[in-house]
Amino acid sequence: MEKLKYALYTGCTARESTPELLKSTLAIADKLGIELVLLDEATCCGASHLQDYDDFLSLVLNARNICYAEKLGLTMVTICNTCQLNTAMTKHRLDTNPELKARVNAKLAEVGLEYKGSSEVTHFLYALIQDYGLENLAAKVQVPLSQFNIAPFYGCHNIRPSELQNLSNGGENPYNPTSLDDLIIACGGVNVDYEEKNKCCGFHAELQAPKTAAVLTGNAIAGAMDANADWMVTPCPLCHLKLDVQHHNASKAIGRDVKLPVLHMPQMVGLALGCTPAELGLGHHVTKVDFV
Amino acid sequence: MDTLQTQQVTFKVFRFNEETDYLPYYNTYTLDVTHEEVVLDILNRIKWDHDGSLSYRRSCRHGICGVCAIKVSGKAVLACKTRLFDMIDVFGNELVIEPLSTKRAIKDLIIDKKDFWDKHAAIKPYVEADIAEHPAQENLVSPHDAEKLLEADYCIQCGACHYSCPSLEINEQYFGPAAFAAAYRFAADVRDNASVERLNIVNEEAQGVWDCVKCMECAQVCPKEVNPIEKITKLHNMIFEAGVAKNNVATRHAVGFAHSIDKHGLLDEGELVRYSEGNIGVMKHLPEAIAMWKNGKIVMPWNMPKSKNLDEVKKLIKSSSTVKF
Fold this sequence. Notes:
CATH topology of the largest domain in chain B: Fumarate Reductase Iron-sulfur Protein, Chain B, domain 2
Oligomer: heterodimer
Distance between the termini of chain A: 32 Å
CATH class of the largest domain in chain A: Alpha Beta
Number of domains of chain B: 3
Order of helices and strands of chain A: EHEHHEHHEHEHHHEHEHHEH
């Protein structure tokens, strides 16, 4: 197989509140022989809030991020669902609207950049599945996760709206997504089905609507617990922050104690590939990963 | 002629009569369905061939009246527009047929949509304009101005997005995506004089646009491709552009991103929470902050990472910003 090489857009969370996500991403890329070039020039994507304030500024900044992947001639991979949504949405809007693209490029020209539309944008989850291949991944598994019931938590911004996401996620159906389930199976684990797996964690309303956010988080963890999951796994660090850090508020909001360890998608893959807990940053979790 | 393809499907149908039942229950029917049939055909067959008491709304059968919206295995659909085979592709050969909102059921698949209509009425879903009683000429809207409505005009008020919105499910004050799409439709109308008044209504805490969790389900589920969350974003923008944004946690949360990116390129997560909540409000996040700090999840201000070529970012923020707060 030809060596896979991507431009990695880490997003902010992986460099601040979820350092274990960046650590584990780099660890499994190393194990699988995937080359990731860090886009250190990239800024925050605006996390779907900057565009509420200033939509044009959000477009310019996201286009600038993509420019740096284009300069490398590489596909951009994201490791945060919200980065994926904002970047893919920017790309889609610019690629389908020449007038808007020209307006954005007029601004980018001031700093010597040009958005061309030549780089694809995809989440690392889908790069692993579509480019590396689940069979190839399964062949590399050293420690099958066969003793675990694992609840996939997809995160909204990788699956909806499908009109946009299907450009990169292999046609995943948001009402019955399967990619993360397939990945769990490839890692030797048992995938758990539950109603909340494709629902919202509430992250984006955390500050302005804390009760709504807490109930959604609580429902998600409760759903996984009721389906007899040992732990959860998610491709999104924002979902992870809600599920890992906010379980006490979630418990209060739904009137039931809910708590489960939650792994980032690359941490789960890393465990199966035989990475050590330290290599995967498992010590950073607030809800302790007590099963390794 | 195409040959008729058939598949056997088990339908689990929600039953409830507000007047006689204490709890809802489900009836199960196993039927052979053809590739030509839509969900409404099955409801009709169950009613006509198996149980005449099954109640549901139906009218135009052309995806335009919006009354037949129900949920199939959790997905809100127009029964008259949704092919069974498409549902089988997604959910398999056991399908659950439920009303849009089980807690609002009156009789089987018929719900009380009062909350939907109340919220629709609350955003003033009409043009308010000073037009002469006997105008001498037509009040024309140019194609360019009409385009600004985007697809908001296509809404058929079926309630698919409204009863799929997780924020509304928890906070019943929240207006929801359909009402916001309607609010945008009239706020964006060049003939309308009530724009600011309408923006103030959707700017209120709890009921307004700020409680959107950004799950994108409204955009996904809409059978008419209205894309309500796009209109919610537009309303956010209009609130800032019209200068009616209040200085509160929700608005500062959006604005704080611009400040942080200007300073670091990346988002300063801790500072965003402090800026949004204020110096006193931020204290309620202390338990989480301490737990995160203990586990190496908090970057101290002096260690805050910065994007490379930050001067570019600063320059672009200066030249590309379109609003002020």
